[in-house]
Specification:
By secondary structure, the chain is α/β, with parallel strands linked by helices. It is built from 14 helices and 13 strands. Strand 10 and strand 11 form a beta hairpin. Helix 2 runs parallel beside helix 10, helix 4 runs parallel beside helix 7 and helix 9 packs across helix 10. The protein is globular and about 60 Å long. The mean pLDDT is 96.
Length: 340
């Protein structure tokens, strides 16, 4: 475990971008981990592939503490601080190694967003001048790729206990493939989606782009636990458990509906509907839905009649900690894990 922690720190501390060989190896292993996940917790779709749902509603999983991690956006230190966070005197990393904890990240690995706003503008000007592999983009991609290395290593080491869902930023090709993969092109301050794709194509090659895209498309989109549900965004509309499992062929555009929903754009009652679909008819009054996607002021925001807890504040290293046999209280159980 100490060797793994040292390795993860080395990714974060490296002044260089990962080599083609090292990154490709991690990606291939990570894709294999996702595609070969145990059907006991990741049901197969109608074609026998790993489906879009993680199902941890069984009795054994219900006995484990769970940490729900909001949008990461290149924050590798945030993820390492989570691993070093202690519960009952043991670090999260130690609990993962023992198989005594579950971690579920809501997605969004790439793009520093507002934190890197000035850097994005500098990179955009350089790119418009024909310099695609410029220093500003190198700095941005060092953050993104070091985080990706950490995630891939954790997924390979703790396949059944460390999980990350697909967010709307998991679209490295910047493709417009809304119906199958829920992807639409991304831009916020400049042309971030295209800039990342072109940087990776020129600094590495199309193979690295392809492998990152394969990793993104193999990610699940929803996780159900005994008393709560997690997705990147608030569910925009109603759909069934089977539609989530068959997310790559669902006519309901389920992936888009769980990754791109703007605040106040969801139909009323979608969370209650998914509680019934994923947790059962008697899910009860205490069920909670977690999402990130859109930033919140302060610690959290409540939606869907208070049933959905939105926890993405990019200025804070905060997570939701759900303990077995204990009702979730957002005032107590959303905690700051930052190590100063």
């Amino acid at each position: 475990m100490s060797n793994l922690r040292t390795l993860l720190q080395s990714y974060l501390d490296s002044p260089d971008l990962p080599s083609h060989e090292a990154l490709l190896s991690l990606l291939e292993t990570g894709v294999s981990s996702l595609e070969g996940e145990n059907a006991a917790y990741r049901p197969r779709d109608s074609e026998g592939n790993a489906g879009g749902l993680l199902d941890f509603t069984d009795e054994k999983s219900a006995s484990l503490p769970v940490i729900v991690v909001p949008d990461l956006h290149g924050r590798g230190k945030f993820l390492l601080d989570i691993l070093d966070f202690e519960l009952s005197g043991e670090t999260v990393l130690s609990l993962l190694e023992k198989g005594e904890m579950l971690v579920c990240c809501v997605g969004d690995i790439f793009h520093s967003e507002n934190r890197g706003r000035a850097r994005w503008k500098e990179a955009f000007l350089e790119s418009m001048g024909g310099n695609l592999v410029n220093e500003a983009m190198k700095a941005e991609m060092r953050e993104n790729l070091s985080l990706l290395e950490i995630i891939l290593s954790l997924k390979s080491a703790f396949a059944s206990h460390f999980h990350i869902l697909k967010g709307n930023h998991e679209n490295v090709l910047n493709e417009n493939h809304r119906e199958k993969y829920g992807n639409v092109p991304f831009r916020k301050f400049c042309d971030e989606g295209n800039m990342v794709a072109e940087f990776l194509r020129h600094f590495y090659d199309d193979l690295i782009l392809h492998e990152i895209s394969c990793f993104e498309k193999a990610l699940p989109i929803c996780a159900a636990f005994s008393r709560f549900v997690v997705s990147h965004a608030e569910p925009a509309t109603r759909f069934s458990r089977e539609e989530i499992i068959n997310y790559h062929k669902s006519g309901s555009l389920v992936t888009f509906a769980l990754t791109w929903t703007a605040n106040d754009a969801a139909e009323d009652g979608t969370v209650a509907h998914l509680f019934t679909e994923l947790l059962g008819e008697d899910a009860g009054e205490n069920a909670v839905y977690f999402s990130g996607h859109r930033p919140v002021l302060g610690t959290y925001a409540l939606r869907q009649g208070g049933k959905l807890v939105q926890i993405h504040n990019p200025e804070i290293e905060q997570v939701a900690v759900i303990l077995p046999n204990k009702e979730f209280d957002p005032e107590r159980d959303i905690v700051d894990v930052e190590r100063k």
